[in-house]
Design goal:
Aspartate Aminotransferase, domain 2, 13 helices, alpha/beta, Aspartate Aminotransferase, domain 1, three-stranded antiparallel sheet, about 375 residues
Length: about 375
């Protein structure tokens, strides 16, 4: 038996009739960047994330870069980023000419270590903090408030992996000064291609992002240097539909996660990374295991595909060998990267696949 890691085709097959009707409507209109569809999606996204404004972009990478621009981040400014994430979290900082300052990981949930972040804020003149909701886990509101209110530094929530997650009543996309989300095909809500969005409660920031995403245009005027980073109307209607069924998507993913939880319960050799008082979207189901490579081999010999998110600290990549950055006092990141393993989990997992994985997990000593 072979259990694939992804099942991206299953969403389309499950909703084929609805999706074909939606896309046909857009195609028949002949207006492929029709603002009616885009604005409807943005309005629903803002409502979902408890924000006043949502501005869609071509990718979350662009969304993060635009967020930095809107906050006035400039050449040489220092911006805190996590040491564990995908590279797209840090490249927008470099694109802005700023200096990434890497924060250690909290091994309990994979998020930024609050204590190390505090040290960095005290030792450096930090202009912004980018915190990643890794695997769908959310930070505590106290961490975000301390950055914004105590240190008076803007907090950018990289919510690329967390839409639909909730912690202590706060929903993903609602935290900090600006939030950025991703609609990459592997995400819980996904475009059929690439897409992202910026979320904010600040009208001036929202206006700035709208200009940046389309050639600096405002009305009939071009006010500044901008970019071309929009989603088309087809993507907008597909994303809007997924927001309509988001509760069902989250429920399905939590069903899978609960099954895994039960399968590994009582096993001292491994545990799942979660945040307390949370409803996770389980963008990833990540377990920590001292013998990660042995477990990966054990599962793959039995046809279960797994992945490692993420195999090494961001600052260890060749990109940073000759690039300005700060990586100091980091002790937990490498051990963390050596122990994490991601199990297959997606919205339309077959029940027989789920049962097979759980039965295999129960065989682990």
């Amino acid at each position: 038996m072979v259990v694939p890691f992804y099942g991206l085709d299953r969403f389309f097959l499950r909703h084929k009739e609805v999706l074909e009707k939606l896309t046909s409507e857009v195609m028949a209109s002949g207006q492929y960047f029709n603002e009616k569809y885009t604005q409807a999606f943005e309005a629903r996204l803002a409502l979902q994330c408890h924000r006043k404004y949502a501005i869609s972009t071509g990718s979350c990478t662009d969304a993060l870069f635009f967020a930095l621009m809107a906050l006035g981040i400039r050449q040489g400014d220092k911006v805190v980023v996590p040491s564990v994430s995908f590279m797209a979290t840090v490249t927008p900082v470099m694109r802005a000419g700023a200096v990434p300052v890497f924060a250690d990981v909290d091994p309990v949930n994979g998020l930024i270590c609050a204590k190390h972040l505090e040290k960095l804020m005290q030792q450096h003149e930090i202009k912004a903090v980018i915190g990643v909701d890794l695997y769908g886990n959310l930070p505590g509101a106290d961490l975000v408030k301390r950055v914004v209110q105590h240190f008076h530094v803007p907090y950018i929530e990289d919510a690329a992996q967390s839409i639909g997650s909730v912690r202590d009543g706060a929903v993903a996309g609602s935290m900090g000064t600006i939030s950025c989300v991703s609609f990459d095909p592997t995400k819980v809500i996904h475009a059929f291609g690439s897409g992202g969005a910026v979320l904010t409660d600040d009208a001036s920031v929202a206006d700035k992002i709208r200009r940046l995403r389309y050639h600096g245009k405002s009305g009939n005027e071009h006010l500044e240097h901008g970019y071309n980073s929009r989603i088309n109307a087809t993507q907008a209607v597909l994303l809007n539909f997924q927001l309509e069924v988001l509760d069902d998507i989250i429920a399905s993913r939590n069903h899978c996660a609960k099954s895994y939880d039960n399968a590994i319960a009582g096993k001292k050799s491994l545990h799942c990374l979660t945040s307390p008082n949370s409803l996770s979207n389980f963008h990833k189901y990540v377990i920590v295991c001292d013998d990660r490579d042995g477990l990966k081999l054990f599962l793959e010999q039995r046809g279960i595909q797994t992945m490692i998110h993420y195999p090494r600290p961001l600052f260890s990549y060749e990109l940073f060998r000759n690039s300005p950055h700060v990586a100091e006092g980091i002790t937990e990141t490498q051990p963390f990267c050596d122990k994490v393993l991601t199990l297959p989990l997606h919205t339309f997992m077959k029940e027989e696949d789920l049962l097979y994985i759980c039965d295999t997990l129960q065989q682990i000593p």
